[in-house]
Queue: 2 jobs
Job 1
Amino acid sequence: MYNQEIINKLTEIGFVYDVENPELIISVGGDGTMLNAVRNNLFRIDQVKFLGINTGKLGFYTEFLPSEIDKMVEFLKNKDYRECHFNLLEYTLINDQEQYTSYALNEIAITNPIHTQIIDVYINDIHFETFRGTGFLISTPSGSTAYNKSLQGSVVHPEVKSFQLTEIASINNRVFKTISSPLVLPKYHFVSLVSKNYENIFIVADGEREHLENIHTIKVTLSQKVAIFLTKKEDDFWIRVKKAFIE
Ligand code: NAP
Ligand code: MN
């Protein structure tokens, strides 16, 4: 709806509309649209920057409203921005034949909607606990305000280079025990979630399901890869959190 207007106005100030080799990707929608934009551009994540226009959703990752397109054009023309670097999560799905690695901006969710999922949790290859329950969420700092927050995970500033492991409905009783609290791990640490039976598991990264069969291990760490967002100079993470959740 706003796309042609944006293209016209940016072309007027010397930008070139290049779908093949973009340097800037403008997402028009909400966070879901931005998550898709990042996902579709993972193969060239080092070459692109992202900017979001929020068309009425929560828009945690977005910077401008549709009524502010002229303001956005000025912002780009005058390079009146900062670059925010959001580390991605790196996850590897492993079965007996192969392994597959990809990246997520918000999180990876591992859930079994049918049976109690038994998962052995290893931190840096050391066995930590045996989990029984629905599953786990592993999130980045920039994703900590999304699904992670609904699970009572901590809100983590993106400059705290870390990732968070949060339980989804663990069973804790006389026989079974888990740590119960969300864990915040530093970069370079890695979590391995190992199970003999991931048969009915849903592995969902940023709202998109993964489909590798017969997985026995899911290995996750904080990636050195970043998604670069253009933000207003005065942008502040805590003000963003306040606007999204308190005001
Ligand atoms: P969605 O169901 O529309 O997303 C749920 C809400 O999360 C939307 O309001 C979305 O913002 C917001 N959101 C996404 N990333 C955020 C972030 N980093 N900080 C704060 N809020 C954020 O689905 P979607 O738009 O495709 O987004 C996928 C995301 O939904 C997943 O990555 C996951 O984090 C989240 N999710 C949450 C739950 C839950 O809380 N129970 C369950 C499943 C998925 P917009 O309104 O701008 O889209
Ligand atoms: Mn959405």
Note: The chain has a mean pLDDT of 97.
Job 2
Amino acid sequence: MVDIAFIGLGAMGGGMAANLAKAGHRVIAFDLSEPAVTRATQAGCQRARSIAEAVCQARVIVTMLPSGAHVLDVYRSSDGVMAHAPSGALFLDCSTISVQDARTLAHEATKAGFRVCDAPVSGGVGAAQAGTLTFMVGGTDAEYKAAKPILAAMGKAIIHAGAHGAGQSAKICNNMLLAVTMIGTCEAFVLAERLGLDPKAFFEIASQSSGQSWSMTSYAPVPGLVENAPSNRNFTNGFAITLMLKDLRLALAANSECGLKATLALKAEEIYSEYLVKFGPNRDFSGVIDLMKEE
Ligand code: NAD
């Protein structure tokens, strides 16, 4: 049993904190949203009224926050994590943020005597609740070893990506690839339909042929093909287009820092931006197929 502070109890963090409590850890939970903290207490966590109260006795601090600006503020501010956590505490930031922000946090935290890993996740809200996330971890070997048993209560795969920032590097590369394969998959389904193919027949063929990908076999953008895919519920309760665009823009910024053009990722950003304007911010990203059907 470990004393763990959990900050950021939203769509993802709520389920993750609940799984840590279920695994027998003492989880002290904080969020700016009162209802989010109440839900966490109902799931077995203890309420904290401030970041200071949450972290002051914790050996491990997990954060699951919207963006890099939120993360740096929560760790750095005078009433934040670094000002109040015990020396040597292990920070696990599971938010998706830029590689640069992750490295900045690691540098400052290490200098202040803490241990730190960037540990972003793959898998959506369902995986957060089921405890089946994939964690991509950036940190030293010793930090990864210390983080692994904690993360294992929330995930099915805990992979050491490399040094600080490597977890975020893996995350944005993965999601850049996902963004592109989903658009290709949607275009193929729309063309198949226009050519008179039964979507079920095309799915059966492509999912066993060279066009196969996760976008096809685990997340098909056409209803009735993959159980639990957002296409079965009119693209609600999935990976919101705003989050996909956030990740894609982090990837594009990293590409330009590395002097890369990333032609397909750039085009994908253009297509998803148009989808966002026409269909609104909450739909799942795979609903971009509806944009293509309009052509
Ligand atoms: P969310 O907006 O539902 O939750 C964020 C929570 O952080 C909110 O409850 C908010 O009140 C809280 N918060 C913000 N600032 C705070 C502060 N200063 N102190 C305490 N709490 C604060 O977001 P989410 O969907 O849970 O996503 C969290 C992170 O996980 C993001 O970085 C996102 O990119 C990443 N992610 C999300 C998904 C997904 O499917 N939703 C999948 C993989 C990764």
Note: The chain has a mean pLDDT of 97.
